[in-house]
From TrEMBL:
Protein name: Sphingomyelin phosphodiesterase 2
Region: Disordered, residue numbers: 420-441
Family under the similarity heading: Belongs to the neutral sphingomyelinase family.
Gene Ontology, cellular component aspect: membrane
KW Lyase (keyword) present: no
Domain of life: Eukaryota
Residue ranges annotated for the Endonuclease/exonuclease/phosphatase domain, each copy included: 11-270
Subcellular location, record wording: Membrane
GO terms assigned for molecular function: metal ion binding; sphingomyelin phosphodiesterase activity
């Protein structure tokens, strides 16, 4: 016997930076009106940076989505919020260990406290773990200095999802991953967790061509931001997977298309995503028959592919380690120069006391300004040294975890007698299957 149910999931990066984002207040009103009208089951929002805006939406959606949670993190918050028709029983926030650099203030990611938020819901008799996240942005694809940070974030995200969703019947993850479909972090997340992409899984799609979510036709987007991708990029996702007793199918998916009828501007600089998920609960007999039909060769191929992906991720983290060590060395050398300059100044200041009757060789104002400069150099470089040391430890921790995981995967691969090194061309996202390293197996 098969029991069916459906869940409508909505995800949007709201671009809600008060006083900086264009038409922020009006757009939140538009988003609230649309959500009241559409009545999605689960709403996942990112970049709701102001708690006042969250409270505005909470009040507006009180009837359609009576259950909600706002995840607080960092200096200005995580920007993550969940609204739901179904009761939220539990929530948890995990803040990523790496998230850019504080001195890159014009990018602002470090101040945002990027994280993944989890909510445990009850959908009928089923337990659903719902995740919302926002990863570090990619500002320059050709020379991406944040790539090691984003890879570590993807690694921590897949760990968090795997370790917290073991008892869930339904797993849903939505958000702005800031990664293209074939990027390393995306492949790492999808392969390790077995999550499936709604856009690739559905046969019924209505939206931007190729599922793009950051498009040139959006009034808030300049073509310069898109770089070599003139039409746009796909960086926002709704991912899902079932469990041993439940299968999930994406019956349809849609995105907004850069404009909103009857309004002068769109909801955000990102396009909104909506996925219609069908849940099918099977009997134990049906589940057992399905598991017996698994192909061992296919499982070996998936593990081998995962070995390649983790090896690539580990290499990228090592590149980040080398850069962090270099920057810490530069900070140390600069601090030493500042300290030497300070000692020189102290020696000059002591001249009048060592040579009685001698006058101060430097004007007093210049002397004080030089002292301030020395202290500023020492303070700045000390803070940078501490920051780079923290970055190094986070990168080293991730690299150690990847090394252990790689050893475990290789040991598992040796358990397949016919398994060969994975030199074949990678499978396309359309053919991705649940992870061979899923803890449920």
């Amino acid at each position: 016997m098969v029991t069916r149910d459906s869940v409508r999931v909505f995800s949007l990066n709201c671009w809600g930076i008060r006083y900086l984002s264009k038409h922020c207040r009006q757009r939140y009103a538009m988003i609230g009106d649309m959500l009241c009208k559409e009545e999605h089951d689960i709403v996942l929002l990112q970049e709701v940076w102001s708690e006042k805006d969250y409270l505005f939406l909470k009040k507006k959606l009180a009837c359609s989505h009576p259950h909600s949670h706002y995840f607080k993190s960092g200096v200005i918050g995580s920007g993550l919020a969940i609204f739901s028709k179904h009761r939220i029983h539990d929530t948890f926030l995990y803040r990523y260990s790496l998230n850019g650099y504080p001195y890159m203030a014009h990018h602002g990611d470090w101040f945002g406290g990027k994280a993944v938020g989890m909510a445990v819901l009850s959908i009928g008799s089923l337990t659903a773990n719902v995740y919302v996240t926002h990863l570090h942005a990619e500002y320059c694809r050709e020379k991406d200095s944040y790539l090691p940070h984003r890879v570590v974030q993807a690694w921590e995200l897949q760990q968090f999802v795997r370790h917290t969703s073991a008892g869930a019947d339904v797993v849903i993850l939505g958000g702005d991953l800031n990664m293209h479909p074939q990027d390393l972090g995306n492949r790492l997340l999808m392969s390790y967790t077995g999550l499936r992409d709604s856009y690739l899984e559905t046969d019924k799609f209505d939206g931007c061509e190729n599922g793009l979510t950051l498009i040139a036709d959006n009034a808030f987007i300049s073509k310069k931001e898109l770089g070599p991708f003139e039409e746009g990029i796909r960086i926002d996702y709704i991912l899902f997977k079932g469990s041993s007793k439940l299968e999930i199918f994406c019956d349809s998916m849609s995105t907004t298309k850069g404009s909103v009828p009857d309004y002068p501007f769109p909801y955000s600089d990102h396009e909104a995503l909506t996925a219609e998920l069908r849940l099918e609960l099977h009997t134990p007999a049906e589940i057992g028959g399905g598991k017996q039909s698994k192909d061992q060769d296919s499982a070996a191929e998936k593990v081998a592919e995962l070995v390649d992906i983790v090896t690539e991720a580990r290499t990228e983290v090592k590149v980040g380690l080398h850069c962090a060590e270099s920057m810490r060395y530069t900070a140390t050398r600069t601090a030493a120069m500042g300290l030497a300059l300070l000692f020189l100044e102290l020696f000059i200041a002591a001249v009048p006391w060592l040579a009685l009757g001698a006058e101060q060789p430097f004007p007093r104002t210049s002397f004080y300004l030089l002292a301030v400069l020395c202290f500023a150099i020492l303070l700045t470089t000390s803070l940078l040294y501490i920051f780079y040391t923290m970055e190094l430890k986070s990168l080293q921790g991730a690299e150690d975890q990847m090394r252990l995981a790689l050893g475990s995967l290789q040991e598992k691969l040796r358990g397949f007698p016919l398994a060969q090194p994975h030199n074949a061309q990678r499978k396309s996202p359309e053919n991705q299957e649940p992870s061979a390293f899923d803890p449920e197996e």
